[in-house]
UniProtKB/TrEMBL annotation:
Gene name for this UniProt entry: Slc35b2
InterPro entries given in the database record: EmrE-like (IPR037185), SCL35B1-4/HUT1 (IPR013657)
Transmembrane region(s): 33-54, 108-128, 153-172, 236-255, 261-280, 301-318, 338-356, 363-386, 392-410
UniProt-listed Pfam families: UAA
Membrane topology: Multi-pass membrane protein
This protein's name: Adenosine 3'-phospho 5'-phosphosulfate transporter 1
């Protein structure tokens, strides 16, 4: 039992002469690697019994022999009710409805509404995320205050509100008949909550601008995961822009500011957590892409994934006794309560704006809006929290966003070209 602290203590930092802030070393139970394994054990206590039940029902051929009051529930969770449908062109979203008789002014208003909604939702979400994870609450002249340390509780807060919003939306609007086995959502849910946990936890070790650029570079692992999971192939320009993104991110990460604050030092732990976020998030998007071969709407996908996310996170929090501790923290600090609730509202509203924007204007316009949002997020974080960016780092940021816009332009050209292909030919799939 004395080996774990020694192993964790040996983790080096990337910045010479710097150490992890003392606040992060209060107890080994708060260290990210220990928390990761504890959380994973909590998820396993739900996943393993669920897996055994699914295998039991399949071996018994329950779909043919089962009956009784539980039959519809078990059938929906384990077997589903429909066969797969033909995969749609985008793979992740139904084709957007083209406006037939809509004035230019109305389309401009819709575009401005979508852009404003996405920018406000995710810029506010980013600022609050950094505030919650890097600053203290209840600080006075005599008391330094305390930090909120349980990233999993924030993931739970986000997912419970997203689950509620998606459920109400599905109940109030007409949706396609659902046919996917419910248990298949659990794979995307598990990787989604792990990626979100890594994202929150990484802010204890790296600056927010570094995290934003790391998100931009997830194009590379998404392509790799696409080859492994979906057997996709890619064009030369996709590899070129991925290489440019890698160069830009490397320039930013390797640049150094002489007066950099300890809290913005990019440590080895932060890099590992970012890598975890990118890997888990890449798996999530590719698994969801595969799930869309069933007839479902994006909001149904949002609902299904968040059902399991709530189940996993609340189960793990209860097993650890962390749920009550987090609620007591909320009771002690009303400011944190407001931040956590607003964080969840922004996350849920942002997801709805994503679906609406892609449905109305397509993926290319959405990508441009979100790319601009990333640039604004870096600028806003530097202004509010005082992060410094060197000239080399600024050039790296410019290279990254130039590559992202190049991807949008090349993809739109390829989509126009694919419409002119003969009926028997299909274009190369994209990320």
């Amino acid at each position: 039992r004395f080996c774990l602290p020694l192993v964790l203590a040996s983790f080096p930092t990337m910045a010479t002469g710097e150490e992890i802030p003392p606040a992060l070393q209060d107890s080994w139970g708060d260290f990210w690697l220990f928390r990761f394994f504890v959380n994973a054990a909590g998820y396993a206590s739900i996943v393993v019994p669920g897996y055994l039940l699914i295998q039991y029902f399949k071996r018994r051929n329950y779909l043919e022999t089962g009956r009784g009051i539980c039959f519809p529930v078990i059938k929906s969770c384990v077997f589903g009710s429909e066969v797969k449908s033909v995969h749609q062109e985008d793979g992740s979203l139904p084709p957007r409805a083209e406006p037939t008789e809509s004035s230019t002014a109305r389309q401009v208003f819709k575009l401005l509404f979508c852009a404003a909604g996405l920018q406000v939702s995710y810029l506010t979400w980013g600022v609050l995320q950094e505030r919650v994870m890097t600053r203290t609450y209840g600080a006075t002249e005599t008391d330094p205050g305390e930090k909120f340390k349980d990233s999993q509780f924030l993931v739970f807060m986000n997912r419970i509100l997203a689950f509620t919003v998606a459920g109400l939306y599905c109940a109030l609007t007409k949706q396609p008949r659902h046919g996917a086995p419910m248990y298949k959502y659990s794979f995307a849910s598990l990787s989604n909550i792990l990626s979100s946990w890594c994202q929150y936890e990484a802010l204890k070790y790296i600056s927010f601008p570094t995290q934003v650029l790391a998100k931009a570079s997830k194009v590379i692992p998404v392509m790799m995961m696409g080859k492994l999971v979906s057997r996709k192939s890619y064009e030369y320009w996709e590899y070129l822009t991925a290489a440019l993104i890698s160069v830009g991110v490397s320039m930013f990460l390797l640049s150094s500011a002489p007066n950099r604050h300890v809290s913005t030092v990019t440590t080895f732990s932060g890099v590992v957590l970012l890598a975890g976020y990118i890997i888990f998030d890449s798996f999530t998007s590719n698994w969801q892409d595969a799930l869309f071969t069933y007839k479902m709407s994006p909001v149904q996908m949002m609902f299904g994934v968040n059902v399991f996310s709530c189940l996993f996170t609340v189960g793990s929090l209860l097993e650890q006794g962390a749920l009550l501790e987090s609620l007591r923290f909320m009771a002690r600090h009303s400011e944190f309560t407001a931040h956590a609730v607003l964080l969840s509202v922004c996350s849920a509203c942002g997801q709805l704006f994503i679906f609406y924007t892609i449905n109305q204007f397509g993926a290319a316009v959405f990508t441009i809006i979100m790319t601009l949002r990333q640039a604004f997020a870096i600028l806003l974080s530097c202004l509010i929290y005082g992060h410094t960016v060197t000239v080399v780092g600024g050039l790296g940021v410019a290279v990254v966003f130039m590559a992202l816009f190049l991807r949008v332009y090349a993809r739109s050209r390829m989509k126009k070209r694919s419409k002119k292909l003969p009926p028997g030919e299909t274009p190369v799939q994209k990320v």
